[in-house]
Amino acid sequence: MTLSWNEPSSDGGSPILGYHVDRKEKNSILWQKISKALVIGNIFKSTGLVDGIAYEYRVTAENMAGLSKPSKPSEPMYALDPIDRPGQPVALNITRHEVTVSWTKPEGDGGFSITGYTVERREMPNGRWLKANFNNILETIYTVSGLIEDATYEFRVFARNSAGAVSASSLPSEAITCRDDIEEPKLDVDSIYSSNVVVMAGEVFKLEANVTGRPLPSLVWTKEGKELEDTAKIEIKTTDFHSTLINKDSLRRDGGAFTLTASNPATNEKGVSDSRALNVPVVAKDLVILPTFKMVFSTFSVMAGDDLKIDVPYVACPKATAAWFKDGAILKETTRVNAESTDKNLLLVIKESCRDDVGTYTIKLTNNAGEASTDISVFVLDKPGPPTGPITLDDVTADSVVLSWSPPQYDGGCSINNYIVEKRDTSTTNWQIVSATVARTTIKAVRLKTGCEYQFRIAAENRYGKSSALLSEAIIAQYPFEVPSSPRSVVVQSATKETMVVVWDQPSTDGGSKILGYHLELKERNSILWAKQNKQLIPEPRFKVVGLEEGIEYEFRVYAENIVGLSKASNISEMQVARDPCDRPGKPEAVIVTRNQVTLRWTKPEYDAGIKITGYVVEKKEGSGRWMKASFANVLETEFVVTGLIEDQVYEFRVIARNAAGVFSQPSDSTGPVIARNSFVAPSPATEVMVSTITKDSMVVTWERPTNDGGSPIQGYVVEKRDKDGVRWTRCNKRNVSELRFRVTGLLESHSYEFRVSGENAAGVGTPSTPTIYYKALDPIFKPGPPNNPKVVDTSRSTVSLKWGKPIYDGGCEIQSYIVEACNGASDEWFMCTPPTGISDTKFTVKRLLEKHEYQFRVCAINKIGVGEHADVPGKILLEEKLESPDLELDADMRKMINIRSASTLRLFVPVRGRPAPEVKWGKADGEIKETAQIDNTGSYASLVIENVDRFDSGKYTLTAENAIGVKSIFISVRVLDSPSPPTNFIVKEITKNSVSLTWEPPLLDGGSKIKHYIVEKRESTRKVYSPVTVCNKMSWKVEPLPEGGIFFFRVMAENEYGVGLPVKTLQPIKISEKPQPPGKVSVLDVTKSTVTLTWEKPEHDGGSRISYYEVELSPKDSDAWTVCTSVKGLETVVTNLLKGEEYQFRIVAVNEKGKSDPRQLVQSVVTKDLVIEPAVRPKVSTYHVQVGYDVKIEVPVAGHPKPTITWTKDGAALKQTTRVNVTDSLQHTTLTIKDATKDDGGMYSINVANAHGSKDATIEVITLDRPGPPTGPVQFEDISAESITLNWEPPSYTGKWMKASFANVMETEFEITGLTEDNKYDFRVIARNAAGAVSKPSESTGSITAKDEVDPPNYETD
Predict the structure, then answer these.
(1) Tens digit of each residue's pLDDT (9 = 90 or more) over 576-588
(2) pTM score
(3) How far is 109 from 163, CA to CA, in rounded Å?
(4) How far apart, in whole angstroms, are the C-alpha atoms of residue 615 and residue 656?
(5) Region entry Disordered: which residue ranges (predicted)?
(6) Which residues pair with 404 in a beta bridge?
(7) Which residues, 6 or more positions from 698, have their beta carbon under 8 angstroms from its beta carbon?
(8) Per-residue b/e over 254-289, b at no fewer than 16 CB within 10 Å?
């Protein structure tokens, strides 16, 4: 609602600073202040209202002296939606002195029924709107009389509802000229009469039609040529523009053709109108219609005590039987509640409604065609029922108690506004209000008297009134608690030479009342006096004591306090010396972590406080538990092994240093979470286990290292044996074997043994190797057999490469070496190719052979007995160079897709063949191979190793081998199972003042798994951390709500089964804003023949982004083409270079970084011409009072065009302006400002306003209020005696100026002035004020008057 008011009749001698506005509901007694700051001006907009509630308002003025009394309350006004305007009036009939207009109802009635209309008329072209009706108009038609012949009028209509709200005016009617027009009659008949009208015998049928014509036509009903008259059976109702025929108790003979004839004097010129028949005869026969309700509303509200009438229209034929039910039971009719029915309506009348009438009413209609039912809800608006008890009394103290209750079961049809809580001392009968504005169902009643017994009562209040009260039980105001027990475990946590931090545990019991705080006392070791250290309650179980003396030992004790009082003192703490602690040790580092122990290492404190560090204390914490000692003896070194840990338990560790003075340091930083588990596993089995050097009681077992050490270095090996005749494995070595061979002794001769080897690291013994074959414990006595399957592996023009297997029989002892021999076919002589001692390997390349020669080869083995039989290489070998195209061999696994988890190592190994040895190159089909990749290419193989692979290592890897014979290429597909790459095409699609719409496309790399969803996050530009917005399955999202004007970054990440991928981000911050709303009201400040000065208001909303500038557009009046004439940042501009006498339209557009607003157009067009306005000056008041030393500001409205020249004078002389006294002029005001007023600033100020069209003057008096000046000398001495002297002097020349003697308006020309000082001299003068508020100049002074009683001298008369 928008309020306005008039200024006070008197400002109290000081300008009005502003106003305060109060509001209350109609049925409430509580006024609420709704203006947060002083309201400048006399208009205020009241917001936050509740629909349908009536409100009253009052206003209080404020000046320098304070607040005035509140104004009288306004009339109650309902907070309702405005009524829609009625339809545009249409003229139905026009004569030379009357016009009949009709209109349509408003589409929206504001929630209350329309109770009437007001019609206004205006004579064209420049007349004012005048009220045309002086009684309420109930229908949507009205005849306006008393008009002037041949005058042209417009008409408009206002609607009013039952709440008193008035709509905006309708659109004006078309211009209507008052004269007698002639128009032939016309009939308008509803389409339902275009076919037979069928009714059931005994029922009623109705025929009706609308008619127009000028003058008003006469209407006649006929049937089969006979004129019908209004009778008891046939009822004819005719108005100026409508006629209705109603036939009751229809019989068969009542059927037929009915004719309505309209005629008026227009027949003289245009003839008689054709009659309009009702088309076809009316046939009377039975009609069957299923009962149907035609309800508009299903909910009805009524004030308690008012009558409620529910009208339910329906259709049924034959007539239906109606039954009413309430809440499922048959409605019981009484003298207050009764139901009625007619042929078309059902009526339920409830007189003097009460809360018992609330409920659901059901109507059931039944006839031969069927039945129908509907429900109606009835609410009775009343004061609520009492709150629901009982009243719970909690938190009882010596002076307060907390009351709780439940809301009323019946709320009166609206929400509960507040509760009224009252208390009563049970020794009296007087109730006192605790609070009348309780919004919740609980309150703390305070200011009770300790030991007194109280009873409480509570009433609920809604907008309709106050309920009956709910009473509580009586209760005594006293504490039900005890003092707490003593605090526990008082210890000194840390100490310096001047301070100590003391901590303790809470008492075991709080006495039933919350601990309010603690008190701490200390004493020196050799003292008996305890000194309190805290000036206020200590809220936490911790306190820092300051002001200690270095080297002195102190002890402490603590008291707890609750609402009842102090506890007993705690046990005394241990003695603590006031010395500076040493620095903290360095952060401990978990060097070795196993499943049951952790090795910690740290650095010494940088500063030892001048006393040597004597040891350390190590502490540990399990999960979120407490810190506990982990070392129970003094730790001298900076390394310690914490033992006794639980596997897989999370621990943290820290270290405290201690010096020789017994002073502990602060704890070091924590190691952070450490999980007690081995960071490695047992090694894999040993490989290539072999047995050699066999004797009758020993054998030598050799092996190779495991392929995987489990993450921990191999500490040794375990060798086991099993006799062929036994079933158990027995360990051969008592101590770990660090070498890769071990001599097993103590064997039984001729027994067969198998062996296996296991590796051992910090995690334990690994899986044993595969057992060897059985070896018999015998001394070797034979030469070895021939090597197995010797063959040629490769040849060239000068070399032959041979390969063979070990002899099947080694002669009972280890094969020591092999000898290779060759024979040139040309000489048939064998020569040794290997050294005489032989070679240990089972392959050998024979070099320096002759090209084009044929050779034969043989191989023999050697053991400790000697050289065994030789084995011949089959065939003769012709030495010549072989040419072979490149070939790359891929195993079956590498031909498929290779899947590898991220952070793993990719190893690709491909054998290469070709003569000459081909050149090998690795590549990647869709990119480049990582620079960190390890590539090893030889003539026989190619390998690629990439460590710590990620999603970008996926793709097709190519391997190309090329020599002189040809080229061979293969590709290997690798898929790294990783989280996805960033989404692509990330776009900010739309930005509004509270939302941002984002779109994106799937990542280029899905990480080898289907994308599960996307994660959207945001980050304010002033923060570093992103916060989640949503998780979605689509590729767009609208982020809302966002704070208007906020600046954000956004990012989106894809997630698959392997985790969350890389984000895609907005590169620049996004400001949450949109284009602004249109500027406010546009006004014209000035017009000349070539310029127009415009001003406008800021937009109500800037779209969340600062307005950059405004564009001013103009258009000739009859043109639709707008052009930008200027752009400005302010709210005012001068449009120049306009054509004299042209008419222009103007509009303003606001622009921010998001775009342009819709334009705001100047309401009227502007003609460029020089305005001629005579000068005028209109002071608001004629006298201003100012106290010396204070400021005064006199603002005087002025007018005139061209802009007038303004001249100020004081006491007839030109006003001299200084830094203290200055004048400022604007288009509409001239302002005199006087800072730190002095007595010389008082006087008469004149203002002259002049331009080419005249001159005007005004006078203002400024009265300065100050202490008087000194009396006027010299001081004269008279009547001097030994005991007295008489002094005489003159009054001060400055008396502090004139002051008000009357503080209320003086209506008569006589006034009694009181409060004068006897024998003081006074001057008096009078100022007049008229009804317009204008003030005259002061009258002449009375002259000096002495305040004293008039005494007549004695008068004697003698005969």
Answers:
(1) 888 887 888 999 9
(2) 0.29
(3) 10
(4) 9
(5) 1333-1359
(6) 392, 442
(7) 743, 744, 745, 746, 747, 777
(8) bbeebbbbbbbebeeeeeebeebebeeebebeeeee
